[in-house]
Specification:
By secondary structure, the protein is α/β, with parallel strands linked by helices. The chain is built from eight helices and seven strands. Strands 3-4-5-6-7 form a five-stranded mixed beta sheet, sandwiched between helices.
């Protein structure tokens, strides 16, 4: 189990234990706003020699005041997107080794309907020119969709038994809204029971994407309310997907294998991830 904040770690652990009747639940700390923390988490997880059948990328912040991660990235882009980008890449070897025909491993990435109004500024991914909390959040959610689709393309090109899908949980009543306009918070307080999903309801589509037999071997889908739907038209732009992936690799030190994979010169190997070695951490 990986989470962003230590304050939320133990409640998450005990909540998970309530629904697990067999086996155990172990808490491993991971701060997705820190590349070092992500690498340390991956190293500790891999030391356990456990399979990884499902990875759900579900951490994030929303409409926070302008700030940077410890690595100097704009917080929405750094935590919501780059953190999951690095985490997924460093765990791909374990996912590849865990998946098999008829039982693919799955990567489920949580985006948002906000991606429909997002714009990806490749010249200013850090929103340094003109900062808008809503714009930065929307861009990070748009980036997650592009990332998921490109990841699925790489996996399929290698014949991997891993699939990647993206989900939209809907409008869910959580603490994510603590930074939004006070009027929105008031509406949530008065009418939230009518317009907003509960956290449990918001998780339904993620759980569906993680376990439903209907998606066995199926990737590259955008899911809302347990049904496939279309994401923003620009997310299907293969050139933009590749461009964002390449820039993300440059920003985080992940090796970009796109050309090698699509050219067929890099066959799938279960003992190799798409990221750099973890030595020295």
């Amino acid at each position: 189990m990986e989470v962003v904040s230590p304050a939320g770690g133990q409640p998450c652990k005990w909540s998970a234990m309530e629904v697990v009747s067999h086996g155990g639940v172990e808490f491993l700390y991971c701060d997705l706003a820190s590349l070092r923390s992500i690498r340390q988490f991956v190293r500790k997880f891999k030391e356990k020699n456990l399979p990884l059948h499902v990875l759900v990328n579900n951490a994030g912040v929303m409409m926070v005041p302008q700030s940077k991660t410890v690595d100097g990235f704009e917080e929405h882009f750094g935590l919501n997107y780059l953190g999951h980008f690095v985490l997924t890449n460093l765990l791909l070897d374990t996912l590849n080794a865990s998946g098999r025909p008829g039982r693919n491993a799955r990567v489920v990435t949580v985006s948002s309907a906000t991606h429909y109004v997002g714009e990806l500024d490749m010249d200013d991914l850090q929103s340094s020119g003109s900062y808008s909390a809503h714009g930065a959040y929307a861009q990070s959610k748009l980036a997650l969709v592009l990332f998921s689709y490109h990841l699925q393309g790489l996996l399929a090109a290698q014949g991997s038994h891993v699939t990647a899908n993206v989900v939209d949980p809907g409008v869910v009543s959580t603490d994510l809204y603590k930074h939004v306009f006070w009027g929105t918070r008031l509406v949530m307080k008065v009418f939230g029971w009518w317009f907003f999903k509960t956290p449990d309801e918001g998780a339904w589509t993620s759980v569906y994407a993680a376990v439903t037999p209907e998606l066995e071997g199926v990737g590259g889908r955008y899911l809302y309310n347990e049904k496939e739907t279309k994401s923003l038209a620009v997310t299907y732009d293969l050139g933009l997907q590749e461009q964002l992936w390449a820039r993300s690799c440059q920003m985080t030190g992940i090796v970009d294998v796109t050309r090698d994979v699509f050219s067929g010169s890099l066959p799938l190997r279960e003992d190799v991830s798409l990221g750099p070695p973890l030595a020295g951490l």
